[in-house]
Structure formats: C-alpha cells, structure tokens
Amino acid sequence: MIKVGWLVDGLVIFTFISTWWVLLRDGRPDLAPLRLKYLGFNVFGVIAYFIVDKCIPIFMKFNEKAGLSGKDLNKKGTPQGDVPVPESLGLVPATVFVLVSILGFILISDEGFKYQARDTAALLSICLIILLGFVDDVIDLPWRYKLIIPPIASIPLLVTYSGSTIILLPKLVRPFLGKTLDLGFLYYIYMGMLSVFCSNSINIYAGINGLEVGQSIIIGLSVIVHNIIELWIGADEITVTLHFFSLTIITIYLAVILCLFKYNKYPSKVFVGDTFCYFSGMVLAVVGILGHFSKTLLLFFIPQVLNFLISVPQLFKFIPCPRHRLPKYNQETKQLECVKNHLTLINAFLFVKGPTSEENTCTYLLLFQVACCGFGFFVRYGLGSYFF
C-alpha cells in the first residue's frame, strides 16, 4: 500500500514542476513579468516552511504546559493511546502564513490601491477566523456558535468583493429565464455561506491522523492547477490578475500546511485543532471568492459535500449526535471498524471496505479526494460546455 506521505509529496512535486513549466513557456509572453514575482513567493513559502518546522516543537511544549493536549482515541488501549498529544498546533502554521503573506505583499507585490485593499481584506478575514478558531479550541464552543464564526470573519472579504453578482444559467433553463441572472445581494449571502461550508466541512471530515491536513493539501494543489490552466488560457488582464493572486496565497498556504502534515500524519505527534480547520477553510474560501471561481472550488469539495450529506441527520439533531463520531479501534486486529450510528464518510468507507488500519484508511480517503478533484476538473473543462 502506498504511504500517505509519499502520495502527498509526489502530488506537490508534480504540481509545482507543472506550474513552473507553464510560467516559463514562450507561448504567453505576457506572463513573463509574473515569473520573478512567483519565484519570490516560492522563496517566501520555503522560508515559511522552515519557520513552522522550528516553531512546532517549541509550541508543542507550550501547549502541553497550558493543558492543550489530548489522547488519540483511535489508539485507545495501546501505549501510543496513553501518551498526551499536544493540541491546537494549527495555530503555528496559520500565524506564520499571515506574517509571511504580509511580507510577501509588501516586498513583492506592486499593484495599486484597489488590489492592496483586496489583499488586506483577505488577510483580515483569515486573521479573524484564526482568532475565533483558537477561542473555540480553548473553550470548546457549541455547534450553534461554530456556524456563526465564519460569516463574521468573512465580512471584510464580502465588503471588498468587486466582482459580478451575475451567474450564467444552464442551457436547459435559458428559454424561460434567459442566459444570465443577477442575484444581487443573494450572491453575497451565497459567498458568506461558502465560507461557512468550507470551514466547517473540513472540521467535520476529520478524526484520523493526517486527514484534515491531507485533504487541505490536495484541494490546495487542485486550486493551483486550476489557476495555472486559467493563467494559460486567460484572454484578459483581469483573469490573469485574479488567478495570480490566488496562486500566491495558495503557495504560502501549501508551504506551511505541508510542514504541519509532517507532524500530523500517522502516527500523529500533534493534533491540529479547530484553529487549523477554520484557517484552512477560510483560505480556500478567500481564493475562491476573490479569484472569482467559487463554483469551481466546490467541485474540489465533493468528498466534503458527501460527508456533510451523510452527517445531516446527526448535525441537525434528527437522531442523537455523539461528541466524537469516530470509528472503533479494535485492539486485537489493530484496525479501525465501522460504527454504524456514527454517520460520517469515514465510517461509510469502513462499512464498504471492512476493517482497515488507520494509516491505510487515511491513504484511501486521500486517494478518493484526488479522484474527486480529477472529476471536478473533468466537469469544469469537459462537461461544462455542454451545460453552460
């Protein structure tokens, strides 16, 4: 079975080689000015990686001392299950991301005030979600409050949104409603709900070592591939500007969470906490909204959508919802087993596949994430022309 670390490392190397291949080709001379800028953000990404790598061991001790630690429930009854694991370490890469991104925009970006306002709003929304996520980690907010956090944090994002609120309608309904429809204020509500979904969907699709960070890396890589495609085929300056902005944000984001993955993959040395889930979801929502590809972004969230749909009866209290909806760890076989009344995609996978080790479960689920993102590209660039 392929190791989860090899899978993620291979995808990252392939994506970044592809990115530079596109930027260095001669077919788009208008992309030439972006090469040096992107190289600068790559350098900042490498610096961010090593800062996170140095800081995580330090904050592991701080968090344990502060009582921010817990035991791995999927290793209950084993020596590893008795060792306290530091929690809320998602705060480290999130903080480093914000600081390094600020430096990157100051030292590398030379855009006008309009785009500086956009960059400031994006980082402000991310800062707010990090703060509120850490508060959640410390005092353990009830779910009804968790739903309020992302809309509050997304307010700066929505205020500075300068894109269109007009959507292209499917061909089937155009005889009745026309080719386009202006949603107006409803589109802002949709974007606010997108930030809620992105943040909480990662938060509830979790519970095994490496899954939260692994899925975020794969979605981030998919966003990079989409940005590169759009940069290559983009016919106007606005498209190039929007997708290059997304590319710079995601580059530093991937650098810091790749380092976190080194500590969070099986067997986890740290738990990422709600701070990371909120941070990761908000970064992806930011690039989707300000990059004007929010509908394409949702195609990369297919497993998260499936997990949400499976979880609906428990999330909305139609049936009892336990505090932790984890699979069962069998101490004899050392494998995870499905718990049928824990309605999650993880348990659905174990129901179909049967008992599986925690590491292999994570690997299979991340491979499913890769397949779903590939399907999303097929829908966006293959089937899209047939329906729109």
SSE blueprint and pairings:
Blueprint: H1 4-24, H2 32-65, E1 69-70, E2 85-86, H3 91-107, H4 113-139, H5 143-146, H6 149-153, H7 155-159, E3 166-168, H8 174-177, E4 180-182, H9 185-204, H10 211-233, H11 237-264, H12 273-290, H13 294-299, H14 302-315, E5 328-330, E6 335-337, H15 345-353, H16 358-387
Antiparallel strand pairs: 1-2, 3-4, 5-6
- The DSSP helix count reads 16
- Radius of gyration, whole Å: 21 Å
Please tell me the overall pLDDT. 84
Class from secondary-structure proportions: mainly alpha
Helix-strand string: HHEEHHHHHEHEHHHHHHEEHH
Strand residue percentage? under 5%
Provide the low-confidence segments as ranges: none
**Major sheet: size, sense and barrel closure?**
2 strands, antiparallel
Count of β-strands: 6
What is the overall silhouette? globular
Q: What does this protein look like?
A:
The model has no long low-confidence stretch (mean pLDDT 84). The two termini are 40 Å apart. This protein is globular. The protein contains 16 helices and six strands. The chain has a two-stranded antiparallel ribbon with strand order 1-2. By secondary structure, it is mostly helical.
Question: Keyphrases for this structure?
Answer:
388 residues, mainly alpha, two-stranded antiparallel ribbon, two-stranded antiparallel sheet, 16 helices, 68% helix, 4% strand, globular
Give the gist of this structure.
The protein is mostly helical. It has 16 helices and six strands.
